[in-house]
Design brief:
257 residues; mainly alpha; 13 helices
Length: 257
């Protein structure tokens, strides 16, 4: 019996877990926003620290990018605790650099593939992106052959001997065509834009999780569709936003009566 993590619905790649953790960052930030005692504040701060340290150790660049963008958005919308959070993140980075200064940080983050080179070609960029650039080229070639209806589910993995396309948007377009991609993007963007104007604080923080997922979807294969640790949290946030909005519509309807 196959008892692997993949069989249970969890992705097994170390950097995949980094991306999954990035989606929990907005929940921890919401906890920091709500915290009224030092113990609760310390609890959620510890969660943020553990997430970022994990992402740094495994060199999960997509997850790190999404986490830092999430934190920046938090700082913009919650100025009261911005200096606290900036101090925490700066301390983490300085400590990490000090501890791992002799352990090839540049190589772990693949910066050595593009740093110190006067002429950077496609191969260098592809190495830096862990093979994603070549994937995108193959995907665009396949999309050009079947623009509207796609090439079918799982066809890209057949083309690349089991390697998934590390871009959710391109994956949907390649497999299912532009019509499904546009419908999916419209549903997400409409929700984010509508909830951005909402006065509901929970909606705003769940929106941060949705935006984080959209960023990760540019570099990962299974943020909204795929491994459990990624897709479950994203759709959970999406469901909270929709539920709060539907309740608001019901209240307004009852008031009109």
């Amino acid at each position: 019996v196959n008892q692997s993590l993949q069989t249970a619905g969890f992705g097994g790649a170390r950097t995949g877990w980094s991306s999954g953790l990035a989606l929990y960052t907005s929940f921890a930030l919401y906890g920091i926003y709500l915290s009224k005692s030092k113990k609760i504040l310390l609890l959620y701060t510890s969660i943020i620290i553990l997430i970022i340290i994990n992402q740094l150790i495994v060199a999960g660049r997509s997850g790190l990018l999404a986490s830092f963008i999430t934190i920046i958005i938090f700082i913009v919308i919650n100025k009261a605790k911005k200096y606290y959070l900036i101090t925490i993140i700066t301390t983490i980075l300085i400590t990490y650099i000090y501890i791992y200064s002799g352990n090839n940080i540049i190589e772990d983050l693949r910066l050595s593939d593009i740093s110190g080179q006067s002429n950077i070609d496609v191969k260098d960029i592809d190495n830096f992106s862990a093979g994603r650039i070549i994937q995108y080229i193959y995907a665009l070639e396949g999309i050009s052959n079947n623009l509207l209806f796609g090439n079918g589910l799982g066809k890209f993995k057949e083309l690349t001997n089991g390697t998934e396309l590390h871009n959710v948007w391109l994956r949907l377009w390649y497999e299912s065509g532009i019509l499904l991609l546009l419908i999916f993007m419209y549903m997400i963007l409409l929700s984010i834009l509508q909830k951005h104007r909402s006065k509901n604080t929970l909606n705003k923080y769940m929106n941060i999780c949705l935006i984080s997922g959209c960023i990760l979807a540019l570099f990962e294969p299974n943020v909204m569709i795929g491994s459990f640790q990624n897709s479950a949290m994203w759709w959970f946030s999406f469901g909270i936003v929709l539920k709060n909005e539907s309740n608001k519509i019901v209240i307004i309807h009852n008031e009109k009566k």
